[in-house]
Amino acid sequence: MGGAWAAKEGILQMRKFAVMLYPDFSLQEITCLTSALAIWFGETLDFIASEDKEYRSEEGLRVFPTKTVEYAKIDDYACVILPGTVNPLPALFDEKLIAFLKSGADAEVVFAAISSSPLLLCKAGVLKGKRFTAGFFMQMANAFPFVEKENFVHRGIVEDGNVITGIGMFFREFAQAVLRRFDYEIGKSFMRDAPEEYTQEELTFFWTEDEYREFLEELKEYPAWRDEK
Fold first, then answer.
1. C-alpha span between 105 and 114 (Å, rounded)
2. What is the pLDDT of residue 97?
3. Rounded to 5 degrees, what angle do the CA atoms 85, 87, 91 make?
4. Cβ-Cβ contacts under 8 Å for 151 (sequence gap 6 or more)
5. Whole-angstrom Cα distance, residue 106 to residue 125?
6. Please, which residues have CB within 8 angstroms of residue 131's CB and are 6 or more apart in sequence?
7. Cα distance between residue 189 and residue 172, in whole Å
């Protein structure tokens, strides 16, 4: 079942998704997933961090969390998404962040981690006994005893139980795996359409009459537009 509602034991429940924030998190690796969830399927995402402060993405975007780990309960979420980061050490040694992830080790929540972020799940014990992949340098696996190197699989996307892991270059496949886990209808060529295969008519877009009237009503809130006519 796609959309924002999931059936469980005959009861409709709202799915909740969370994105973890930490220094130098990568937007590029998760925005295929987060935009599909928010724009295509109408989901509301919580952005969770250990502190209520500004975080900068590795692209330089300055963001604030919508919730801190102190006021979030991990088993309230259907899925917790962990972006990669070019600098994983601040998150890795953030005790509050790791404790929050650890609290979900036995919860019925899907963890979706890409690039270097599976390292955080390793430290939190979420990946104990699970097969996984990651985009961190292999020397890191030697540096940290909590990384179970015998379970590392050199593949683009790996799913094991409630954990989906991916390498950063496969961000579309990562998004696809997460969306399919929750039965969203995404078609066969998720975000891979070739522009040259479309006709002029197919690339010309119109609202319905109701949508156009709604737009005109919204436009009335901006009196300056009359001066531009």
1. 17
2. 98
3. 80
4. 127, 129, 130, 131, 132
5. 10
6. 151, 153, 158, 160
7. 10
Residue 89 to residue 110: CA distance in whole angstroms: 23
Question: Do the bridges between strand 11-14 and strand 5-8 make them parallel or antiparallel, or are there none, so unpaired?
Answer: antiparallel
Helix (H, G, I), strand (E, B) or coil at 158: strand
b/e per residue 99-123 (b: at least 16 CB within 10 A): ebbebbbebebbbbbbbbbbbbbbb
The size of the chain, in residues, is 229
> Please, which residues have CB within 8 angstroms of residue 16's CB and are 6 or more apart in sequence?
44, 46, 76, 77, 78
Number of H helices, E strands in the chain: 7, 11
Domains of the chain: 5-181 (3.40.50.880), 195-228 (no CATH)
Contact residues for 101 (Cβ-Cβ < 8 A; gap 6+): 20, 74, 80, 111, 120, 121, 124, 126
Predicted TM-score of the model (pTM): 0.87
Q: How confident is the model at residue 194 (pLDDT cuts 50, 70, 90)?
A: confident
Query: By C-alpha distance, which of 210, 179, 196 is closest to 37?
Result: 179
**Tokens found for residue 67:** 């919730």
